[in-house]
Each structure stands twice: as C-alpha cells, then as structure tokens.
Amino acid sequence: MTASPTTVLADLTSIRTRVDDALASFLRAKAGSGAARRLPEEVVTTLDGFLFGGGKRIRPVLCVLGWLAGGGDPEVPAPVVRAAASLELFHASVLIHDDIIDDSDTRRDRPTVHRVLTDLHRDRRDPERFGAGAAIVLGDLTMVWAAELLHTAQLAHDRLAAALAVLDSMRADVMYGQYLDLLATACPTDDLERALQIVRYKTVSYTCERPLHLGAALADAPPEVRTALTAYARPLGEAFQLRDDLLGVFGDPAHSGKSNLDDLREGKHTALVALALEHASEAEAARLRTLLGDPDLDERAAQDCREILAASARPRVEDMIAARWELAIGALRQPPYPAEVAGALRRIADAAVLRTS
Amino acid sequence: MTASPTTVLADLTSIRTRVDDALASFLRAKAGSGAARRLPEEVVTTLDGFLFGGGKRIRPVLCVLGWLAGGGDPEVPAPVVRAAASLELFHASVLIHDDIIDDSDTRRDRPTVHRVLTDLHRDRRDPERFGAGAAIVLGDLTMVWAAELLHTAQLAHDRLAAALAVLDSMRADVMYGQYLDLLATACPTDDLERALQIVRYKTVSYTCERPLHLGAALADAPPEVRTALTAYARPLGEAFQLRDDLLGVFGDPAHSGKSNLDDLREGKHTALVALALEHASEAEAARLRTLLGDPDLDERAAQDCREILAASARPRVEDMIAARWELAIGALRQPPYPAEVAGALRRIADAAVLRTS
C-alpha cells in the first residue's frame, strides 16, 4: 500500500487516531507491568483519564507535518507516530503541573489531576495535600514516560540523537516560558515586549516551531526546511497565543470549555493587558491595575475590565493576529513546501486564528 | 598519560571533583545563554546554590565504578563523567519536588528551593504560592537539563541509546517509589513487605543498581557484569535505606543535618515502623499508631516513639542491615570485579552501613 501526502492530509483525524493508538498502547503496557509488580493502579488510570479527556493533539499533528515537509515517507512509519505521540505525553506532564501551580479545579470541563487524586483519597488526613503531592509525582512520571515513548520508538540511533537535540531546546523553552509567566502574573505592566517574550517561550517554540522541527529532524531534512518551518511557525505561534489571550477574557465558556474569569483573576500578563495599560486613559489604566489579579474579582468587575480592554486594546490585538497570520501564510508560498503540506498548514493557521475554543 | 583503576580509586574525591566541574561548567553555559536571552538570572543561581550546597554524589560515583567494573578506560573519559554528572542533576530535580511535597523548610542545613524562591519574592501578593509554583517549574527544568547534559555528553550514538534504556527504568522506578511512599505515609501498618517495596523502588534501583548499570552500559559491558552489579547493589541499597530510616528517628541532627522528628511527624512507613507494629505489645503498638503522623508531635512524645521503636524493632533492623551488608560484600568476592573496583565498592558498602549522616 502506498499513500500520497494528499491521502494522509485529507483527513488529519487519521493522524490523531494513530497518535492516540500509540498513547493507548503505551499506557496499556504500563498498566500491565504495573499490575505485575503490584504497583498502584491509580497512577495509570488517572493519567489515562486525563490524556483521553480531551486535547487537540496539535503538537503531534505539527510533528507529522514537519516530517512530510522534510520529505518523509507519506505513509508515516510507526516510529514517527510514536515520536509525535511522545510530544502529547510530555504536554500532559506540563498541564498536570500547570494546574497545580494555578490551583485549577477543572481543565477541559473535567477535574484536574490533583483534584482527581484528592477525591480518590478523601479519607486521608489531608487529602488536598496528598492530591497536590501525588500530582507532582504523577506529572514527573509522565515526563519520564514521554521520554521513554520516544526512546523506544525504534528510531535509527542517529535520528534519535537528532530528535533529542530538538526536544532539549523545546522542553527548556517551555519551562522558561512558565517561569516568565509566573514572574509576570499579578504584576501587569504596559511592557508589550515582555508579554511577547513569554509567548515566544511558552507557545511559539513549544507549540509550533519545535514540533515541526522534530518532524523535520526525524526525516533528516536539510537545514532550509528547518528555516522555512521557522518562518511559518513563529508568526503562527504568536497569532495562536494572542487569540488564546482574547478567548481567555472575551470567550464564551460554553464554547471554550474554560473560564473567562481566571486570566483576569490571576492577573495574567498578556499583550492585551500591556496594550490596554499603554493606551487606555489614566483613570481606566488605574482601574485595570486595581482589578487585575484580584482573586475575588466578580462578574461585574470582570465586565468593567472587559470594557476597558475592548476599547483600548482588543482591536490592536486583532490587528496583530491578522498581521501574523499573513506572515505565516506568506511563508507557506515559498519553497520547499509540497503543495499538500502547505495546504494542511494553511488550514491549521486558519483554525488557530478563527477558532472560538 | 595512563591511569590504573588504582589511581582513580585511591581517591574517589577526584571523581567527585570532575563531576562537580562538569555540573558547574554546564550551569555556567546556561547562565551565559540565559543572560544573552534576557531570561531571569535567579533560575540558574538558585539551582547552582542548591546543587553545590551539599550532597555526596553517590550516584555519579557508582556510575563511574560501574564503568570501571565493566572494563571501561581507567582514565574515565569526559563523556562518561558528564553522563555520571547528569545523574546528580536529575537527583536535584527529585529533591526539589520532594521538598515541596513534604513542605520542608531546610535540606542539608540550607533553605529548600521553594523557600529560597519564596524569600526572593517576599514583596509579591502571595510569596508562598509563588515559591511553590516556581520550584515546581525549576524542578521540571532541572530534569530537562539533566537529560540534556547526558544527550550532549558526546557519547557514541549506540552508547547513548543503551544509557537511555537504563535511565528510563531508573527514572520511572524512583517516581513509583515516591508515589508508594506518599500512599503509605501517615498510614503506618505492620506490612514489612510494603515498606521494602518502597525501598526497592525509591532507593535500591534509583540510588545503587541503575547508576552502576548506567556505567556498565556506557562501557558496553557483557550481561554478566550487569548481573554481578545487581547482586551487590540490591542488598546494599536496602542496607543503605534501613540505615537512613534509623538515622531519621535515632540520628543526632547535629551530625546528620536533618531533623529526627520529621519522619515521625510525617508518619513515614518504614521497615522500622512495620516491625515495631508487629512485635510491640498491643498497648505500645496502639500508642505508636496514635503518635505517628501527628504533625504537632513534640519532643517528649517523640521520645516515647523512640523507646517503643528501640525496644521492639531497632535490633531487628540492625540485623537486617548486617545481613544485607554481608550479601553485598559477598557478591564482590565473585568475578568479574577487578580487585581495585571491588575495594572501592567495599568501602562504599562500609560507609553506607556505618555512617552517622
């Protein structure tokens, strides 16, 4: 059986399905060996519930597209799918820890991992403390397993080494991004460059550029493919995060599955907030500074914030998104993109910019 | 210049120095690239302070001894030292998270990482929450950097792949050990097997067996070396942890640098506790159950615990340590240990069993 990129790309769902199959089979094996060694079942079942409770699999899909852009076999061999799947497992570890840090109760309309573990151990002396501690460990184990999923993907040794170099950058970048985010949270300023630095570490590199580079590295693609992928990924990643920031404040929770109060209550430092603090009237900026980061912010005060942000910054952020979308789309018109791969990347860019969740 | 194993082993300090040099040079490079990218300096300085604030470097030393046992070059090439050093960096990540989980204020007589970060950000709205969150991220970054230190050690690709297989087991084992420990903490029982299962995951595999196997894998040693190392490492690891459990209750904080109340207050499930609950009188066992895990346990009640534990279990644990020390030493008398390597491993076994800190 042969496949053209067209077949693979006509339906990105088939890639997602293969990624999910790789994840499920890895976790099944872990459940089996854990049971044989009388290890606690809840470790795998909790992770399984979290992993298959949702998620767009955007990083694995981009990894496979990077593989195809780099001239990889359109059939997408199993080791490449497994490597792509390892990105999703790593991402799960990041989210598990992120939810502890933010003390979030839900993600994707389901209880977060530390809440699940807390509920499972309600009869303990201090179930909240147990839940948080156990989730730190489960997040660590998930990170370790993500690496194992890649190491055991049966990649050629030189491809594995190339993949590890890309992942070392990606993983350090997202951690620095998280750290920058923590530092800036609850300290809103008009520093747009600072907001964009967080985006570059937390989203651009982690969600777009490195997953694409990983695929290209697996295909042993020449350096110009990597450069071309970067030209697409950087503006796309920024557009993606800027859209996310807007949804975090103006989004409809019924569609997005997440609160539109949390970012305001945390006082998340975003481009939206930086631009508002720069362009709003002095009185409005002062009001915004008072409200942002108030953990008890109510819906009425949140509406005040939204009005100030909408008037002073929202159109500017929409312009930034549009400009970045143009750049990303423009990059796809250059070689060396096969037409079908460019088409799929274009659809992803459209979805990232137009999405409502 | 040539070196015999004797030269290297006469002074294990020289191995520790080379490991520390590898760690320092890695962190210096991270500080440099971080500064160039305007990343927060405190990330590297905090990790540096923690890493060089203490630690016996037992895992890197065992890795180098595994290398020598496997017939590796007595000069110990730089890539092997770097791989050994990566174990210490991984260990730092485990300790950083462990201290958050246990809410510990100090380690090695110095403030824990989340306390350092809390103090650094005293002027924030919620410095404790910031410190814990930032330390979760810093622990994650440390784990990522530990992997990078190995990946960039300039190992041959097939040796890197062999090393990763050992590390995948080791890292998952310690996480399962942490999880088992959390589950059992504050729920003391007379289940000795359960206590020893925790030891096998948390200490035997992680502290002794896998570091030795890593060195052997780097040397491409035949399977019988691995088997021989296991015969030594398993009883040694148990003896090491059993001694640790005794020190945690009966140790002199002035010598050990750690509290002799914490294990009792946490209600840590150890072989010592399991044996006491099995062999003490009903009244004493009941008293122990009441006291263990009481976070407000005072020195007088702790003294009660110590007396019950000393009478009903301490000699039994000392017997277990002696039996395991015998087994470990006996294993060293078999081939394929070069005499000098066996001598060094013997000194480590003696130190593990006789130590007071």
From TrEMBL, chains A, B:
Instruction: Give the UniProt keywords, A-Z.
Output: Magnesium, Metal-binding, Transferase
- Pfam families membership: polyprenyl_synt
User: A single GO BP annotation from the record?
Assistant: isoprenoid biosynthetic process
State the pathway, as annotated in the record: Isoprenoid biosynthesis
Q: List GO molecular-function terms, semicolon-separated.
A: metal ion binding; prenyltransferase activity
Which PANTHER family does the record match to this protein? GERANYLGERANYL PYROPHOSPHATE SYNTHASE, SHORT CHAIN ISOPRENYL DIPHOSPHATE SYNTHASE
* Named cofactor requirement(s): Mg(2+)
Task: Give the protein name, as stated in the record.
Answer: Polyprenyl synthetase family protein
The entry assigns this protein to a family as follows:
Belongs to the FPP/GGPP synthase family.
